[in-house]
Amino acid sequence: MVWSLHNHHMAANQHWYDALNNTPGRVGPPIKPLVEHTEDNIQVLNRLKALGVRIALDDFGTGYSSLSYLHRLPADILKVDRSFIERLGQGARESEFVHTILLLGRNLGMATLAEGVEHHDQWHLLTEIGCRLAQGRVFSMPVDAAEVDDRLACWTAVGPSQSRLTQPV
Description:
TIM Barrel, 2 domains, three-stranded parallel sheet, 8 helices, 8% strand, disordered N terminus
């Protein structure tokens, strides 16, 4: 994450760079993988949060993304793993898993986002169970950074209700 921020000039502001690197004794990349879940990582995330960066817990519900992370990490956004979204519509239990994760995030004061929304019927089911944020091919195929800048400029100019960024394609 940090190298990506730096390489895309988001770390041009010295405060960003200082917040990412002011951990005593650090050698190598500024942030260790969070699976190590060290106090150093939590301190760096808290510094970023103090600068206004919103922290997202990615792929929630799978692998290293667990309930213990919700307790310790200063996350603002809970991203529901795409594996849960892929199974939407296959039965009530699958929808209940997603609905429960959305409620958990909201009850903890976090924004919730569904990853990997590929089809209109998935988006429809998600909106029925209260999901308001999503990412995936139903909205856009992957684009490069320049295209993101262009789309955000358009979104700013026309407003969110008229933009393709908020409507499935």
